[in-house]
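To whoever picks this up:

The parser on our side crashed when reading a file containing two proteins. I've narrowed it down to the boundary between the first structure block and the second sequence. Both blocks are reproduced below exactly, byte for byte. First block:
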Amino acid sequence: MDFVMAFIVGGLICAIGQILIDATKLTPAHVLVLFVTLGAVLSGVGLYQPLVDIGKAGATIPLTGFGHNLVIGVIQDVNEYGILGIFTGGLRSAAGGLTAAIFFGYLMAVFFNPKAK
């Protein structure tokens, strides 16, 4: 059942993004920023965690999940280190994902030899 709920929640988030791109003049970059910000705001007011509890990876993998991850890290570091946690929490919580993205992006560039257009 977890797979089904992840598919439904993740699919709804992606469908909302596609509708925003198709029905408005928002560019994909605008939708990216909107989703990260929306995930952070909803997480900050406590509304995103119930969605994560229901949708699991369907809610944590999309861009809204990245915003949620940043806020969770900031809250944890503020509780542990005080005001300094505002600056360290987001980086600490997202470091693994960012490192993986850079590493695998580098590997793809080495293996597939990208060319400028």
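<<boundary where parser fails>>
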Amino acid sequence: MAEELLINVTPMECRVARVENGIVQELLVERTARRGLVGNIYNGKVVRVLPGMQAAFVEIGLSRTAFLHINDMVWPRHLPAPNVFELLQTGQSITVQVMKDMLGSKGARLTTDLSVPSRYLVMMPYGHHTGVSQRIENAEERDRLRDMIEALQQKHQLAGSLIVRTAAEGVSDAELEQDIVYLGRLWDFIRLKQSETPAPGLILEELPLPQRVIRDMAGEHTHKIYIDSREVHQKVVEFAREFVPTVVDCVQHYPGERPLFDLHNVEDDLQKALQTRVALKSGGYLMIDQTEAMTTIDVNTGSFVGGRSLEDTVYKTNLEATHAIARQLRLRNLGGIIIIDFIDMQEQAHKDEVLKSFEKMLERDYAKTKITQVSELGLVEMTRKRTRESLEHLLCEPCPTCQGRGYVKTAETVCYEIFREILRCARAYQAPSGYTVIANAAIIDRLLSTEAPAVSDLEHFIGRVIKFQVESVYSQEQYDIVLT
């Protein structure tokens, strides 16, 4: 599997594309003016304790107060859960870390159980165990890593617990020790800043996107890392030399005149990732609808009729859809509750194969996922861990015309609303001479053509003249009725 990382840098934003065998699998965007907050550590100030919710609002210096629930706080887990007011008081200073960015109208989600990542490890200063990533499946390698980490941790007297990341598989003892030394220095720095930083204030900021991608995504499958900024290229090389030396030779500066993302067709994939409909090669398609509550994905056969029977056609379409859906989840960074409506299949063996294929495709996902069995209606419920805004929420905003509904009232409907409003006005007020309807051009055109007989009848009924005025800035649903 040939993997490339493309890093496009401008003064306004940084964009990263992960490409496998020429196909874009993931897109990450970070705006300079509003960088992501996940991983940032703050000295916060408790502004309100909510005993009924077992939570508190904490001021960390953002536009909205952040939310801290008792389940995300550190306390001895062998003891019964305390009440939140036993742990927090209004005005109290507290060290917290951002778990989730501000999403929509919600403030950032916080935790007091800090985690500090390096290339191969994650240090949890308040933890009490050593863990190994579940994606490292070899039992001997898991034992080797656990034993080595426990020995190195004792040698360097590093507090808390360590989690071994997937990237540590096959890594030498010397490289792991280098990571532990780095984490020890970083934790000393955090503790020093804790005592110096007034609340609310930033203690430690997460790495910029290019360095974060090198730390978290670059690995043995990464063949090339192209960066189109000479300055960022130099910074990434310096970072890689210190923390990820195995990928230094992969990092290259791209000086070409043609934009890096255009060269690899990333811009086209970016535009397609914002569309509701996703075409499948067979002729079938997906319909992806993202709402605040959940995301729904509907699978359709479309023009595909290549199977020997209807069941065979449906089965092949669903199998193809498992690949496309797994890719779209990563590409669009969809999270939370996701409902997938596969086409109904009659044979249980086909249902099992589709689910098995989907689970296999999700193994590549960096985000934590959990899925259910295929229901009798062909529905699969799943969750995907959401820490940052989806691509759609990051790059788009609700349509000002339809307010994000995805549809507007027809001209016919709006005309009838206008008639009813004129009748209400006629009963409530006595206009001196008549009424002027101010509306969108499409509405006025219909009132003067198709609805002209109805307008004439209404004028006769209320005994007043009705005039019309086009307002070009009005949407199809907007109108005003002025007494004249």
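After patching the parser it read the second block fine. Residues 173-196 form the longest helix (24 residues). DSSP finds 13 helices and 24 strands in the chain.
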